[in-house]
Amino acid sequence: MRQLDVVGVRVEMPSNQPIVLLKEADGERYLPIWIGAVEATAIAFAQQGVVPARPLTHDLLRDVLGAVGRELEQVRITGLRDGVFYAELRLSGGVEVSSRPSDAIALALRTSSPIFCADAVLDEAAIAIPDEQEDEVEKFREFLDSISPEDFEAGGAPGSSG
């Protein structure tokens, strides 16, 4: 397992499909995962520190975990089958819960929990971007800084894998 950091979310053109981009914490590989519009908004809100007037689903789940005395210890992206990513939430007390990666990432950002990915998933789906191509990644980060969560409110693809 390798630890990943969330780079951010963006909309893939021309399909208008949101994507979350993760990067190895101590490597040069990036993992793109296509996600739904709602989850893209939830991730963008968490990254930008937006606190909604009423809790969104991921805020509610964070609050429920706290109310029952559990902590999200880590998120693990565990598999990739037929183009669909799989993840699990590792909770305190040894509890594991299956999750879509997008929901797990949105929750991890709200709880400051680490995100890990199986080596086999990275070997299959990650993209290596050498240091000399970091300028392109920086342009992507600048793009992420210029968008708002509202940019993701329309047009999520049904049956998205994230």
Q: Which class do the helix and strand fractions yield? A: alpha+beta
- Spatially, the strands of the biggest sheet line up as 6-5-4-7-1-2-3-8
Shape, per Cα inertia axes: globular
Low-pLDDT windows of residues: 155-160
Radius of gyration: 15 Å
Total number of β-strand segments? 8
H and E order:
EEEHHEEEHEHEH
Helix run count: 5
What percentage of residues falls in helices of 4 or more residues? 25-40%
Average pLDDT level: 86
In percent terms, what proportion of residues is strand?
A: 25-35%
Largest sheet: 8 strands, mixed
Distance between the termini: 19 Å
What does this structure look like?
- The protein is built from five helices and eight strands; from the N terminus they run βββααβββαβαβα.
- With 162 residues, the chain is α+β, with helices and mostly antiparallel strands.
- α2 crosses α3 (101-111).
- The longest helix has 13 residues, at 134-146.
- Mean pLDDT is 86; it is low at 155-160.
Keywords:
disordered C terminus, 8 strands, 33% helix, eight-stranded mixed sheet, 162 residues, alpha+beta
SSE topology:
Blueprint: E1 2-12, E2 17-24, E3 29-34, H1 37-48, H2 57-67, E4 72-81, E5 84-91, E6 95-99, H3 101-111, E7 115-117, H4 119-125, E8 127-128, H5 134-146
Parallel strand pairs: 4-7
Antiparallel strand pairs: 1-2, 1-7, 2-3, 3-8, 4-5, 5-6
Helix pairs in contact: 1-3, 2-3
